[in-house]
Design a protein that fits this description.
The complex is a heterodimer of chains A (about 300) and B (about 290).
Chain A (H helix, E strand, L loop, with lengths): L2 E5 L4 H10 L4 E6 L11 E4 L5 H10 L3 E4 L10 H21 L4 E5 L31 H16 L4 E7 L1 E3 L6 H6 L3 E5 L5 E6 H14 L3 E5 L3 E4 H7 L3 E5 L1 H13 L22 H7 L7 H6 L4
Parallel strand pairs in A: 1-2, 1-4, 2-3, 4-5, 5-6, 6-10, 7-9, 8-12
Antiparallel strand pairs in A: 9-11
Helix pairs in contact in A: 1-6, 3-4
Chain B lengths: L1 H9 L3 H15 L17 H7 L1 H10 L3 E3 L9 E5 L7 H13 L6 E5 L9 H7 L2 E3 L2 H9 L3 E4 L4 H4 L15 H9 L3 E7 L7 E4 L1 H6 L6 E3 L18 E4 L13 H25 L7
Helix pairs in contact in B: 4-5, 7-9
Classes of the chains: A alpha/beta (about 300), B alpha/beta (about 290).
Chain lengths: ~300, ~290
Amino acid sequence: MEKVLVTGISGGQGRLLARRLLDSFEVCGVDRVAWEGRPKDVNVHQVDLRKRKFEDVFRTEQPTAVVHMGMVRHFRVSEQVRHDVNVRGTKQLLDHCVNHGVQKLIVISSSYVYGAAPDNPFYMDEDFPLGATRSYPEMRDLVEVDTLASAFIWKYPHIRTAVLRPVNTLGYYVHSMIGEYLRQRRVPTVMGFDPMLQFIHEEDVSEAIALALEHGLQGVFNVVGPGAVPISVAIRETGGTALSLPEPILRPMVDRAFRWGFLPFPSGAIDYVKYPVTLAGKRFVDATGFRPLFGLEEIFHSVRR
Amino acid sequence: MSALGDLFGALLPLSMRDVERDLDDRIRKIPTRLNEFGYDPWGLHPQTIRKTILPALALYKYWFRVETHDIERVPPGRALLIANHAGQLPFDAAMLSVAMLLEAEPPRILRGMAEFWVSELPWVSIFAARGGAASGTPETCREMLEAGECVIAFPEGVRGMNKLYKDRYKLMRFGTGFMRLALEAQAPIVPVAVIGSEEQQPGFANARRLGRMLGMPAFPITATFPLLGPLGMLPLPVKYHLWFGEPLHFHGAPTDEDSIIEEKVDQVKAAIEALFERGLRERRGVFTG
């Protein structure tokens, strides 16, 4: 039986994935925090990706496959820490995969790496350049992780490596930026803008990762859910109230609120609710036959406020 | 907004009320696939069109008194409409859209490719998307055609839009992008001649440099603009005729060199010119006919 090591296993998405994988894989994981109430056959090692002890996990568990989702995607820590954990942590992990005979690797990136810009074409494929840092410099570590992992595909072709870029993920368990955004009591939007956003359910993301493992995918893949709606519809359907503000007011407000710790994201994030970032999911569907189980209505209803 | 709409609706002449009543039925018959919230993948929302179409309808019925000829030639499924472009402001696109919704069978939403700067304009970006336009690359256009949509393109672009009065009903240089796209998507091309738009706002000069300074693609000098200010942008109440030609089917590689593509483009131009000739011959007057 294949043994999968999941980084970030104690997070919402990690737990879902672990439970999904248990049917067909042995599962172990690492995280900085414990997972209370985990299934008893799942080993969770509380280590830091940047520490030597992380390599010991590879020695003792000897995983044949790794799913890397243990990135810091929020901004409650300093840029320095984010860079350390995300970029250096990923680099360490890639080295360990090479040195300890891992055969399959899945790295979970996101649709955000493409960046939101007025000249984005609709339904971008995986070859579209990653432009997130043009207006959102705080994303540079996550873009770099994606780039590191994509380069790894070519450097070590004998390790089946897939980089997955799922669209906006919502659900009961997952902690995502878009989830945090939609759960606000008053959801700030940019006056006069209402871009199309794609959504996917957390369970479908787990399913997609499992499919990628089972198929031993190699390459970069967008993972797209059932469809897209304007952000105003997403706010309405998740039970929120939009607070529409003119951009010249919104931007400095968000900047200040972020600096003082009232808001979980910097003003660069505004572009993601101003311009569309829509992805083509064809490559992944062709490779795995993936079909999202959850429709848009179910996705929106799964957001608890 | 909707209270205003109701008030407006109550003041409508009877003939407009009939059209209004008809609209729901026609919007239901649009073949475009929508998701459970009523949107298509590019942000089209027929219900928004339903709520905001009234001014365009009034222009269609009373200002330009649009008459269509052979609109049944537009085939069901994918089609690329190619038309002349003139008149300083794109009323030709708006009138073609209304015609396709009111008079084509089945009713169609005319899809257009918007310039990228459209997506930077507040509200304009929303209305463009809800009305069926997409900030487009050729790729987006191809995907729309492959989804069975009816797409409009004006290969003259701004060259046509700001042409001078002396050049009316003369086609400016056509780009070749639309032909490569039609070949790639294997979409039939329907040539369309818009009669009337070329006289709606006679331009005598184009102060391009001034336009560029103001961040506009052109700065037309017409009989009424800039003399009368914003009011001068109102088009003359010319009579519009929309002539639809037989669909043209082209074959060949979309990557062929320009000379081969241009031959095909010339066939489309010739078809539009033939429609011009007939349309101009058959109309009685610029305002009455």
